[in-house]
Amino acid sequence: MTEASYPADIPTAQLDTERRFVRITGERADGFVEFDFAVGEPELFVEMILSRPAFEEFCEMNQVQTMGPAEDAGPEDRMADFAWNLRDATGKRFR
């Protein structure tokens, strides 16, 4: 495998893995919390679900910062077709 060479004027991306983020996206009647979790960059996240006690422990262990509500992509956004999540897909049938 060869090492990739990049132009010298492109800065190296810095990712601070100590920064952790949580955005609550829903709370179920059965006591589960649906949330987004990100490490380093709030724009790159995974969707998770935990019971309320487990969620609170998870947040404490990870020393998370709370994110505000997600901004919806407008129709003019050329990536709008990709602006969905698993929560949106649960009620849809795919062929």
Q: Report the average pLDDT across residues.
A: 82
CATH class categorisation of the domain at 16-70 = Alpha Beta
Query: Strand pairing plus helix content: what structural class?
Result: alpha+beta
Rg calculated over all Cα atoms? 17 Å
How can the largest sheet be summarized? 4 strands, mixed
Looking at the structure, what is the overall shape?
extended
| CATH T-level fold name of the domain at 16-70 | Nucleotidyltransferase, domain 5
Uncertain regions spanning at least 5 consecutive residues: none
Order of helices and strands: EEEHEH
Give the terminus-to-terminus CA distance: 39 Å
Q: Which range best describes the helical content: under 10%, 10-25%, 25-40%, 40-55%, 55-70% or over 70%?
A: 10-25%
Content of β-strand? 25-35%
Keywords: Monooxygenase, Oxidoreductase
Pfam families: Phenol_hyd_sub (PF06099)
Organism: Marinobacter pelagius
InterPro entries: DmpK
Would you write up a description of this structure?
Keywords: Monooxygenase, Oxidoreductase. InterPro entries: DmpK. The chain has 95 residues and is of the alpha+beta class. It is built from 2 helices and 4 strands. A hairpin with a 5-residue loop joins β2 and β3 (45-51). The chain starts with 19 loop residues before the first strand and ends in a 6-residue tail after the last helix. The mean pLDDT is 82.
